[in-house]
Design the sequence.
């Protein structure tokens, strides 16, 4: 699998109805192609500490924020290729640094603290972040994704995510795509990933379809929903 260790790009997010999704697909399918993986299930484990420091800070929409996650594309088993990713956002620009390793090696690192021997300095950066914030696996977030790439500019990508779910009681990737819905059925999260300015042709399509960007975080919304459920259960208990 080809992959990049370091990304720098702008990401715009949009919540789409089924009608808006069909409109977008109708207008971009002649200019963009679905990547070689087709529809893919993406499994993520997000990290935080006991105070939920990273996600609570992120929800305040600061100028700078960061998160750590472990990701597997497709079926997750111990031999699957996983990606440990530090994702930072500063003044609207996303910076991502990641390493690739078998999932069993990622689990081994989390258990023993032995740094993976791949990715240059990035394993040390991941380790520093874990120790600095005292991070541990916090939540599973999974979804189905269709990724599309511009036929002329491969750095322009559009992804469509559906069936976004979260789990806090069982964060194992191997459990699969089951849990609490973060988005309603037939609702799509579209992300436009670009190295710089939005192409004019794409901006025109969005304007015609009356499609406007939203500030949306899968982990952030899952966290808000989880907090509400925990508080509700506590009130019922007392």
Sequence:
């Amino acid at each position: 699998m080809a992959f990049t260790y370091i990304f720098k790009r702008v990401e715009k997010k949009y919540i789409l109805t089924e009608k808006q999704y069909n409109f977008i697909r109708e207008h971009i399918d002649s200019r963009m192609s679905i990547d070689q993986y087709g529809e893919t299930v993406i499994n993520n484990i997000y990290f935080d500490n006991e105070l939920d420091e990273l996600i609570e800070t992120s929800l305040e929409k600061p100028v700078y924020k960061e998160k750590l996650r472990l990701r597997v594309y497709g079926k997750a088993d111990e031999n699957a290729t996983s990606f440990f990713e530090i994702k930072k956002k500063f003044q609207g620009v996303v910076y991502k640094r990641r390493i690739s390793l078998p999932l069993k090696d990622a689990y081994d690192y989390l258990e023993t603290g032995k740094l993976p021997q791949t990715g240059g300095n990035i394993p040390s950066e991941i380790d520093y972040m874990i120790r600095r914030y005292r991070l541990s696996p916090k939540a599973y977030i999974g979804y189905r994704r269709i990724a599309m790439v511009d036929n002329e500019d491969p750095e322009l990508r559009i992804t469509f995510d559906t069936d976004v779910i979260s789990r806090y009681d069982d964060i194992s990737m191997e459990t699969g795509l089951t849990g609490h819905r973060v988005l309603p059925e037939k609702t799509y999260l579209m992300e436009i990933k670009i190295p710089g300015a939005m192409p004019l042709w794409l901006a025109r399509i969005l304007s015609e379809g009356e499609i406007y960007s939203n500030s949306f975080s899968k982990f952030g919304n899952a966290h808000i929903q989880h907090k509400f459920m925990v508080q509700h259960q506590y009130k019922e208990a007392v």
Remarks:
- The chain has a mean pLDDT of 92.
- Strands lie at 6-16, 32-48, 64-73, 81-90, 93-102, 136-150, 157-167, 180-181, 188-194.
- The domain at 6-237 is CATH 3.20.100.30 (mRNA Triphosphatase Cet1; Chain A).
